[in-house]
């Protein structure tokens, strides 16, 4: 079985059966927040672009939707800042209690997901909520929220360039890199399902393309 087939066999994506009522205004008639969904293969520059957008354009009133994961923290990551770090058993308990808007088991015992309560709190506060999620999670969130969400797919110039970027990061073994490439090849097939595809062959240009797309969406 090749790398891509193993990845597809291991992926389990789920959408909560309990529906949420998409909110547009609060009880006082004030506008509620909107949603920005970012997805991309690992190494595409998505995190760099999102961080630039949020740092350089505070007028957009953006705030991360903090996801949950069962992986261990990396580097200086902190619980409740980059992610809510849960054990695999705790993640499964929350799944059983129907607390997630979406979740995915990327590899065995490696979960990622978005808590419903976290999204609701931020939208009700009027924040424009930023989602940094996998492609299937992004598609599910977009499907649920419809026109209240803008979905952006950040695409590398090519798979070869993506491999070069992952090698230069020097954070993964060659086997892990090949797993990521197999996953990326699969994820690239989802690009057409997003509202916009931004090709990151030049970081500054990609940042500006994202900014203009987001600004237009929020001003619509």
UniProtKB/TrEMBL annotation:
Top-level lineage group: Bacteria
GO molecular function, one term: ATP binding
Residue span(s) of domain Guanylate kinase-like: 33-215
Entries under InterPro entries matching the protein: GK/Ca_channel_bsu, Guanylate_kin-like_dom, Guanylate_kinase, Guanylate_kinase_CS, P-loop_NTPase
Protein species of origin: Hoylesella pleuritidis F0068
Reactions performed catalytically: GMP + ATP = GDP + ADP
GO-annotated cellular components: cytosol
Principal subcellular localisation of the protein: cytoplasm
Name used for this protein in its record: Guanylate kinase
Family as reported in the entry's similarity comment: Belongs to the guanylate kinase family.
Residues that, per the record, bind ATP: 40-47
Keyword Kinase: yes
Keywords from the named record: ATP-binding, Cytoplasm, Kinase, Nucleotide-binding, Transferase
């Amino acid at each position: 079985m090749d790398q891509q087939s193993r990845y597809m066999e291991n992926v389990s994506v789920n959408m909560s059966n309990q529906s949420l009522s998409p909110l547009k205004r609060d009880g006082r008639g004030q506008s509620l927040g909107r949603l920005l969904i970012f997805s991309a293969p690992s190494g595409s520059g998505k995190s760099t672009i999102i961080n630039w957008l949020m740092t350089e354009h505070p007028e957009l009133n953006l705030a991360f939707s903090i996801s949950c994961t069962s992986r261990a923290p990396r580097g200086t990551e902190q619980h409740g800042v980059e992610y809510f770090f849960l054990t695999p058993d705790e993640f499964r308990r929350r799944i059983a209690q129907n607390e997630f808007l979406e979740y995915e088991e990327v590899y065995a015992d490696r979960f990622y997901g978005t808590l419903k309560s976290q999204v609701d709190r931020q939208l009700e506060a009027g924040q424009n909520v930023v989602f940094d999620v996998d492609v299937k999670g992004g598609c599910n969130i977009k499907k649920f929220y419809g026109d209240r969400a803008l979905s952006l797919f950040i695409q590398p110039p090519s798979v070869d360039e993506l491999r070069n970027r992952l090698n230069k990061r020097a954070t993964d073994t060659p086997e892990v890199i090949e797993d990521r490439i197999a996953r990326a090849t699969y994820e690239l097939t989802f690009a057409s399902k997003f509202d916009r595809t931004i090709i990151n062959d030049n970081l500054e240009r990609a940042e500006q393309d994202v900014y203009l797309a987001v600004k237009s969406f929020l001003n619509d």
